[in-house]
Amino acid sequence: MQPSLRRPHRLALAIIAPRIFAFCHTFGLTVWIAVVEGSGWTLILPGMLLLLWPGVAYALAAHAQNSKRAEFRNLLFDSLLFGFWCSVLDFYVLATITIGLACLMNNLVVGGVRKMLIAAGLFILAALFGSALTGFTFRPYVSNRLDIYQWAGAVVYFLTIGRVTYSQNRKIGRSIGEIRFQNRVFHALLDLGAVANRATNIHTLLVDSLNHLQTHFPDYGFAVFLQERQRSEVTRFAAVAGLSSEDEKRLRFLLTNVHGQGGDPTTLPQTDKGENLYVASMAGRLSMYEGWLIVKAPSRDDGLKQILSLFADQLAAATENKLLHLELKKTAERDGLTGLYNRGFLESALQMSIQGKVQTPNLDFAVLMLDVDRLKDVNDHYGHVAGDQLIACVAQYLQFHCRDSDILARYGGDEFVILFPSADLTAARRMANLIQENLPEQRCTIDTASGEHEELMLHVSIGCASSSEVPAQQVFALADERMYANKSQRRKQWADGLGTASRPFL
Ligand SMILES: Nc1nc2c(ncn2[C@@H]2O[C@H](COP(=O)(O)OP(=O)(O)OP(=O)(O)O)[C@@H](O)[C@H]2O)c(=O)[nH]1
Fold it and tell me: Is Transmembrane helix one of the keywords (predicted)?
């Protein structure tokens, strides 16, 4: 495939001006000598090749597949050409020294000592070839005026090269700064995913993400707001990092100006304090919320706009994933009617407790089992909706008495289980007593099938067991057995009309 003309490597671009100057100056020198020695056009005409070479060199670099390598070749060819021309000019000493030095220096700067030695070799070879071709003549001096011309050219040339090197250094410095910044952005984006994965809910996700961004960009302040799509006046989640509460209030106010804007980052009007605020909307990236990521920059920073939408995208994706994950987790672990853990979750937790006891014999666990008495009667008499309400009522009551470390689950229709992952029978018994003692005061209001409200007392049968009594695998069965024993005893009491237990519900 034919390589097309394109912008050559920066080396070729940087060298173009000094090269044009050097070859034009040498052409001037040639004309001067041609006039002085009277050789006229026989010297000037071939000298015009010097004027052509800078253009050819540029075209070669622009056409080449590897423009940088082509420019290295051009620099070596400079040495070849100048070596030959110095022999044509009969080794006029000042020109040979200054031109030779320029060739060596250029190759040394871009390619090190190796390239410089190659350039020196080519310069000498071309000079020898030129001498062989045109006959060796040595004319070390032409005139004072030509010396001055050559000195002036050399000074201008070396200063130009110095200027070029300086501006290249500055460009490299700027590029390094940009690369470092992009590296920071890249790492911040990469780590943001890990931070989001660790978060247990949306609020921690947002707070941790912003804190994380702030550790990467300590001079910047960050804020994020998520509002309900249907009710834009309700801010569901908000988090800030590196901003004062005053800043946060002002940002909320400023947000009203950017409502309804698309996804492109915007610069908010500069505040009285001269702060530079940038906002990126997460519109269209979140299914249930409208979101905004706001950055307070220490100075005007137009590059920030580009990376801001990257951060906003990443944050929106992480939030959306987390919402989905939490929803799935809830569906997998929770019971739809009561919101308590379901049977599947309880069984996994129980297995973990059993394994824990096997591995660490001192680590006991206890199980408390409850069954609502005569739910069938309630269903039959008041309807299933009323039965559901009773179940939800019992769940609420149990939840009230449980601690965070207790695992409360709806095991079946009207059966509940509380697992105490690191407790012995005392804890389970204490809880059983607490529940039974407070139960007589509990009332549950249900809606009957005929549309009336009815107040029911709660009645439950309870059994508990612990791994300090029986092998871990048998704890659950023992609690179940005890619960049924308790139920039989209560049934007998109701049948006999004895004891404190009143006949449930009806
Ligand atoms: N309303 C409602 N009823 C349910 C639900 N799950 C199970 N049930 C009913 O609850 C009753 C549970 O029956 P059992 O536990 O055997 O007996 P009971 O009526 O509670 O009487 P006890 O012997 O005192 O336990 C059954 O009639 C089930 O149909 C539910 O989610 N909602």
Answer: yes
Alpha carbon distance 506, 496 (integer Å): 16
Q: CA 482 → CA 136, 269, 465, distances in Å? A: 120, 71, 8
Closest residue to atom 15 of ligand 1, CA basis: 414
- How far does the centroid of ligand 1 lie from the alpha carbon of residue 505, in Å? 14
Separation of 400 CA from ligand 1 center, angstroms?
A: 23
| Residue listed under structure tokens 């004895």 | 498
378 CA from centroid of ligand 1 (Å): 9
| Number of helices and strands in the chain (H, E) | 13, 11
Place of tokens 């067991």: 465
DSSP code at position 472 = G
pLDDT tens track for 223-274: 888 888 777 666 777 888 888 777 777 777 666 655 555 555 566 666 566 6
Report strand pairing: 266-267 vs 276-281: antiparallel
Q: Give me the DSSP letters along 336-366.
A: TTT-SB-HHHHHHHHHHHHHHHHHSTT---E
DSSP 474: G
By most ligand atoms within 8 Å of CB, the mutation choice from 342, 371, 374, 375 for ligand 1 is 375
Residues in contact with ligand 1 by the CB-under-6-Å rule are 337, 371-376, 379, 384, 387-388, 391, 413-414, 487
Across 148-157, 193-202, 271-280, the highest mean pLDDT is recorded for 148-157
CB burial class (10 A; 0-12, 13-18, 19+) of residue 407? buried
Ligand 1: atom nearest CA of 376 is: 19
- For 447-493, write each residue's pLDDT tens digit: 887 788 888 888 899 999 999 999 999 999 999 999 999 999 988 88
Top mutation candidate among 370, 376, 388, 490 for ligand 1, by most atoms within 8 Å of CB? 376
Domains of the chain with CATH codes: 10-172 (no CATH), 199-333 (3.30.450.40), 343-496 (3.30.70.270)
The residue nearest atom 26 of ligand 1, judged by CA position, is 376
Which residue is it, tokens 């000498």?
124
Q: Is the model's pTM score more than 0.90?
A: no
Contact predicate 120/104, CB 8 Å: yes
* Per-residue model confidence as pLDDT tens digits over 334-359: 999 999 999 999 999 999 999 999 88
